[in-house]
């Protein structure tokens, strides 16, 4: 099959691998982008896990919560200049307020609520403005549910959904723990809360990659299953929030940190889930190539 230059370029941006390696990976996987990423990881040529969330786009990720709900919203624009402007910041603040207080059930409903303001800002700044993503957590205070949140300069937004003793309001000390966990999620990027939540698709994909890597290394078929099982166990400590080392104190796992804090406060604390937005994740920002533009310009002048 024919492999397009665009596909090769996209795979290179996702993985950091060389152009020829990317072309070969796409050829080997019949153009399947995800399979090509796995192929490059197997060969030790990719850094997909580190690169995938670093695709750039401008804008702001906002996060807010109260006693009843918590919201996470991503608003995009085309340039950093507009993103830092007062008009854009006000639009994000107003959008967050509507998301939290008017409880739109999904993204399209939120977009409809701010449709007129979106059009006005687009006309004023001369750039496309887009409310791209929206998530909402409904909190049951009767069950002691609450949310901690953290915003890293508008580039990363995190919500951590927790509960404390039934019927108990989350005080400032409990909320401080939730904020610590939200900061940890922003830094450590867990994929699951606990080991038993790792889905079989994720586990199988990683196991297949480990198996292929071990075969490349010449390990015997008898040894591979045990090595893979060990690697999967280690993986749980890397991708599960409660298993990870706390970024503020690597001597403690998150589970132990929560346990110690709960004991100090004579309360129970349970992590129910978390949400995280990285600004521009999955968006490829257009990159101008000055050399190409100059070549086109000089070429057109010479031909005229």
Q: What can you see in these coordinates?
A:
The protein has a 3-stranded antiparallel β-sheet with strand order 1-2-3. Strands 4-5-8 form a 3-stranded antiparallel β-sheet. Strands 6-7 form a two-stranded antiparallel ribbon. A hairpin with a 3-residue loop joins strand 4 and strand 5 (156-163). The protein has 304 residues and is α+β, with helices and mostly antiparallel strands. The relative contact order is 0.12. The protein has helices at 5-15, 19-28, 33-42, 48-51, 80-83, 86-101, 107-113, 115-125, 172-188, 200-216, 224-239, 254-265, 290-303, and strands at residues 58-65, 69-77, 130-138, 145-152, 156-163, 245-246, 249-253, 270-278.
Gist of the model:
49% of the residues lie in helices and 19% in strands.
- Strand elements, count: 8
Number of helices: 13
Helix content: 40-55%
Structural class: alpha+beta
Whole-number average pLDDT?
A: 86
Cross-sheet strand order for the largest sheet:
1-2-3
Distance between the termini: 39 Å
Instruction: Give the C-alpha Rg.
Output: 23 Å
Query: Element order, helices and strands?
Result: HHHHEEHHHHEEEHHHEEHEH
Main sheet characteristics: 3 strands, antiparallel
Low-confidence stretches: 48-56
C-alpha geometry = flat
Residues in β-strands, percent: 15-25%
Secondary-structure map with pairings?
Elements: H1 5-15, H2 19-28, H3 33-42, H4 48-51, E1 58-65, E2 69-77, H5 80-83, H6 86-101, H7 107-113, H8 115-125, E3 130-138, E4 145-152, E5 156-163, H9 172-188, H10 200-216, H11 224-239, E6 245-246, E7 249-253, H12 254-265, E8 270-278, H13 290-303
Antiparallel strand pairs: 1-2, 2-3, 4-5, 5-8, 6-7
């Amino acid at each position: 099959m024919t492999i397009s230059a665009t596909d090769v370029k996209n795979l290179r941006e996702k993985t950091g691998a060389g152009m020829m390696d990317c072309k070969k990976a796409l050829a080997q996987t019949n153009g399947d982008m995800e399979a090509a990423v796995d192929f490059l990881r197997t060969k030790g040529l990719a850094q997909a896990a580190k690169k995938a969330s670093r695709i750039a786009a401008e804008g702001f990720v906002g996060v807010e919560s109260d006693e009843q709900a918590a919201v996470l919203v991503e608003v995009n624009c085309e340039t950093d200049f507009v993103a830092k402007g007062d008009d854009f910041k006000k639009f994000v603040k107003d959008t967050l307020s509507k998301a939290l207080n008017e409880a739109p059930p999904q993204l399209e409903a939120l977009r409809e609520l701010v449709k007129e303001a979106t059009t006005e800002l687009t006309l004023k700044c001369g750039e496309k403005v887009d409310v791209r993503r929206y998530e909402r957590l409904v909190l049951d205070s009767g069950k002691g549910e609450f949310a901690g949140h953290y915003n890293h300069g508008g580039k990363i937004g995190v919500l951590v959904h927790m509960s404390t003793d039934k019927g108990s309001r989350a005080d400032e000390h409990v909320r401080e723990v939730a904020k610590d966990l939200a900061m940890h999620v922003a830094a450590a990027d867990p994929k699951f809360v606990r080991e038993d939540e790792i889905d079989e698709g994720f586990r199988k994909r990683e196991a297949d990659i480990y198996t292929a890597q071990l075969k490349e290394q010449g390990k015997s078929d008898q040894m591979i299953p045990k090595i893979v099982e060990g690697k999967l166990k280690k993986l749980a400590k890397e991708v599960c929030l409660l298993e990870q080392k706390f970024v503020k104190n690597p001597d403690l796992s998150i589970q132990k940190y929560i346990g110690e804090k709960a004991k100090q406060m004579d309360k129970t604390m349970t992590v129910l889930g978390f949400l995280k937005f990285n600004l521009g994740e999955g968006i490829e920002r257009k990159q101008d190539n000055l050399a190409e533009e100059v070549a086109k310009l000089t070429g057109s002048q010479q031909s005229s």
